[in-house]
Amino acid sequence: MLVLLFEWLAQSFSFFDVFKYLTLRGILAVLTALGLCLAMGPLMIRRLTELKIGQSIRDDGPQTHLAKTGTPTMGGALVLLAIGVSTLMWGDLSNYYVWITLFVTLGSGIVGGLDDYLKLKYRNSVGLPGRYKYLGLSGIAFIGVLALYLFATPTADNPSPTETTLFIPVFKDLFFQLGWLFIPWSYLVIVGASNAVNLTDGLDGLAIMPTILVSAGLGVFAYLSGNSVFAGYLGIPYIPGVGEMVIFCATIFGAGLGFLWFNTYPAQVFMGDVGALALGAGLGVVAVIVRQEIVLAIMGGIFVIEAISVILQVGSFKMTGKRIFRMAPIHHHYELKGWAEPKVIVRFWIITIILVLIGLATLKVR
What we know:
This protein is mainly α. Helix content is 65%, strand content 2%. The longest helix is centred in the N-terminal third of the chain and has 29 residues, at 22-50.
């Protein structure tokens, strides 16, 4: 929105040309999203408390969590508001990647919000039945992926679109043109990331900090992939227009930091599915756009491990009647082993920092 205004002002005042740079707009997007969360956070928490919009805690989990019953939830709505407003302010609204990313992220947030609402209405931890939640997320992801595929349709000048090519990290010349398989592949990435972040969101600040770190890593890839010189030098795919994903990643970074201010242990507010499902989908769609789905799995390794722990636990119990972990997702396993909640959280953060650095290292190891 402001980009168009500054372009018009730049015709008369050259100073406003500075707002063309992604780096400046990215910094301003971080500060805007952060400021919105910090300014509106106390009001939101107070309002949620007045409306008694509190979290229902499972009685079969760690007993230390029972004291959290009633803590305000659905705080992720504030994160999405900050992301949406900041992206619209500092993003180039003529770029279709911006709109697709916002659609997938906010649409997934609506599904998560409905799930949160039903949990609050019926005072339990069930919420929206799994099949309906999956159907909603699937519909949002499919529409977004289909739009990306149609915009990347092969032409005479570009018979093998970069936008639908799967690139393997480390190997410079190892890639696969997916064609129509881009649709199911990207759909799985987005829905999988959405659910993985949601499963991770079980301890104070556990999900939001890795989300912040991974968004920063993806922002670096977006900046480099949107620049033909840097992309050519590093041997990564050059995709015109994806540089605007820097702005979106910056808003996640800023909004995430603002939310962490209130969500850090002991949490004053929980994110809820409205935030977790949306942020996971947002990371997934950005990874698809910048063609770094495998790097997303590396940098978001904590999310992957959390999801796999649930799959293994359910599969093992159904097939053998025995559980692999004391409780899944795996962060609860370590709690039941005697780790204090802050210890689990910080150690998972440290692991994420290491994984994000490994993901960034793939830029040069080719």
